């Protein structure tokens, strides 16, 4: 999976939660929960969608690493590439 | 025959538009069945029926905008199989409490809102002293804050039965939904539901309508409820560790949110402080047995809606999470049931997601308390002569000072704190 594919998958999972926002135009450094107004319930739904899409379950302890699009790409990219290390 | 009327879905609702019928004449309905869908400022709401019976006639038409208390349909009541009296909490109890205006403005007699202006001049008080009242009707009247002197009985010999009280309550709600109703000098308009302001005259968008609905509720609260506010800091070390351990061993779809733990703790604490799980109706405190917690949820339209998580007193943390998983998406999508908007006994507002430290709440009438939670954050914590960094949450209580004193509120917050130190026992 290329980074572009991964980004598309992330945006796909965000879409039902923030339908009126355009995640594709997010500042990669911005906190997505703040910029897309995602509460803790919606954030959990986002992670559930990601787990279905990518087969990755994010432990609660790693939530802080998923704050921005940049963080999501780095964290999920590493998990996809080296599943055994995570 | 029973009039099935437009319920009040909270003190801030005046009218709703009938969107769909789920029943037809001849159908048998049971208490709790969804019988209609109405569009309100809060979205599409499924209306449940509070009687067992057979549908005789659908009175209201699809697309019609109807004030609270307007007749939607007529039912022929059938005795429920077990004749268990409905628990008071199951009634639409948060109808704007008529008693505020009721003393000078008697509720119109049953069945004839249009003619009630004339009939309301009948002195009701002497009749009541000689009229027979069923025990259930008396209980329901106390719960709903209805003066029996204003109720016309339809039972044998004019005896007042439960349905009569509920009719009177519905009419009173319709009357008090109209601003004129509060003015005792104009009883004629007060008793005519049709006198309610026609909100359809203009067409505000949904967000504006919701803003107006909230404005009405909080204005009433600020006008009528003398609030007191208490705050405490709660050490969440144990609760957070318990949650993390639980979530680490669960599949992601079964994870718990902190809200489930907080709601469980609130419900358990209320068991020891029942005066906070109550309504202020007329001039008295009416305790509720069930704990139905209105929980503030942000909608996608920018508003905040607070449907009730029902029967939290008997739900485990897991069951509360299951209930939230059902309720939150429906709240966000605007698909709630009437009981979820009318049955709440207390409100919990958690604004921690927005980074807020402390919530100073405004009570939702006729409730008498609101619990606020801020964000969970690390703070310096002094204990036993040492200074530590701990995860801390600021919990607040807004209390109705007519109903309870600060002492009750303080004890409640201490119970809440104690319970959150033993999350495994929730």
Structure notes:
The complex is a heterodimer of chains A (86) and B (426). Chain A has one domain (3-85): ACP-like (Non-ribosomal Peptide Synthetase Peptidyl Carrier Protein, Chain A), CATH 1.10.1200.10. Chain A contains four helices and no strands. Chain A is globular, with a radius of gyration of 12 Å. With 86 residues, chain A is mainly alpha-helical. Chain B is an alpha+beta fold and 426 residues long. In chain B, strands 9-19-18-17-12-15 form a six-stranded mixed β-sheet. Chain B has a five-stranded mixed β-sheet with strand order 7-2-4-5-16. In chain B, strand 18 (369-383) and strand 19 (386-400) form a beta hairpin. The longest helix of chain B has 19 residues, at 206-224. Chain B starts with a strand and ends in a 6-residue tail after the last helix. Mean pLDDT of chain B is 78; it is low at 83-130 and 174-203.
Number of DSSP-assigned strands of chain A: 0
Helix/sheet category of chain A: mainly alpha
Q: Helix tally of chain B?
A: 12
> What does the largest sheet of chain B look like?
6 strands, mixed
Instruction: Name the quaternary structure.
Output: heterodimer
| Count of individual helical segments of chain A | 4
Strand content of chain A: under 5%
Question: What is the approximate shape of chain B?
Answer: globular
CATH top level class name of the largest domain in chain B: Alpha Beta
- Report, as a whole number of angstroms, the end-to-end distance of chain A: 17 Å
Going across the biggest sheet of chain B, name each strand in turn.
9-19-18-17-12-15
Radius of gyration based on Cα positions of chain B: 22 Å
Quote the CATH topology of chain A.
Non-ribosomal Peptide Synthetase Peptidyl Carrier Protein, Chain A
Terminal CA distance of chain B: 45 Å
Shape of chain A: globular
Highest-level CATH class of chain A: Mainly Alpha
Number of domains of chain B: 2
């Amino acid at each position: 999976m290329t980074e572009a594919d991964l980004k598309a998958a992330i945006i796909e999972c965000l879409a039902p939660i923030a339908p009126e926002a355009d995640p594709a135009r997010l500042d990669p450094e911005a906190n997505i929960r703040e910029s897309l107004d995602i509460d803790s319930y919606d954030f959990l739904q986002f992670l559930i969608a990601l787990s279905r899409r990518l087969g990755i379950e994010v432990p609660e302890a790693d939530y802080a690493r998923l704050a921005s699009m940049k963080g999501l790409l780095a964290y999920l990219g590493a998990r996809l590439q080296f599943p055994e290390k995570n | 025959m029973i009039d099935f009327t437009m319920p009040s879905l909270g003190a801030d609702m005046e009218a709703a538009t009938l969107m769909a019928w789920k029943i037809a004449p001849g159908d048998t309905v049971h208490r709790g069945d969804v019988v209609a869908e109405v569009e309100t400022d809060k979205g599409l709401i499924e209306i449940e029926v509070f009687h067992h019976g057979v549908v005789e006639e659908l009175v209201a038409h699809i697309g019609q905008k109807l004030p609270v208390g307007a007749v939607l349909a007529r039912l022929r009541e059938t005795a429920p199989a077990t004749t268990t009296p409905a628990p008071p909490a199951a009634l639409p109890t948060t109808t704007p409490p008529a008693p505020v205006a009721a003393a000078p403005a008697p509720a119109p007699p049953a069945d004839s809102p249009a003619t009630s202006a004339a009939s309301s001049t009948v002195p009701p008080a002497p009749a009541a002293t000689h009229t027979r009242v069923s025990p259930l009707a008396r209980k329901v009247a106390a719960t709903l804050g209805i003066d029996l002197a204003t109720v016309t009985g339809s039972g044998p010999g004019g005896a007042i039965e439960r349905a009569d009280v509920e009719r009177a309550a519905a009419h009173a709600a319709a009357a008090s939904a109209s601003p004129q109703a509060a003015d005792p000098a104009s009883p004629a308009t007060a008793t005519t539901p049709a006198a309610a302001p026609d909100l359809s005259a203009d067409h505000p968008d949904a967000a504006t309508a919701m803003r107006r609905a909230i404005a009405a509720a909080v204005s009433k609260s600020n006008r009528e409820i003398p609030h007191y506010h208490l705050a405490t800091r709660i050490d969440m070390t144990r609760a957070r560790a318990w949650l993390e351990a639980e979530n680490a061993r669960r599949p992601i779809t079964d994870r718990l949110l902190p809200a489930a733990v907080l709601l469980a703790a609130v419900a358990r604490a209320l068991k020891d402080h029942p005066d906070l799980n109550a309504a202020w109706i007329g001039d008295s405190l009416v305790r509720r047995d069930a704990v139905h917690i209105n929980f503030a949820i942000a909608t996608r339209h920018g508003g905040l809606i607070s449907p009730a998580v029902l029967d939290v007193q008997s739900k485990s943390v897991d069951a509360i999470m299951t209930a939230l998983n059902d309720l939150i998406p429906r709240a966000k999508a605007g698909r709630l049931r009437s009981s979820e908007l009318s049955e709440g006994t207390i409100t919990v507002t958690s604004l921690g997601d927005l980074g807020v430290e402390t919530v100073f709440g405004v009570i939702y009438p006729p409730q008498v308390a609101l619990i606020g939670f801020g964000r969970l954050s690390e703070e310096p914590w002094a204990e036993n002569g040492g200074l530590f960094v701990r995860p801390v949450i600021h919990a607040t209580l807004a209390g109705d000072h007519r109903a309870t004193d600060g002492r009750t509120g303080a004890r409640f917050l201490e119970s809440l704190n104690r319970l959150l130190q033993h999350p495994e026992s929730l």
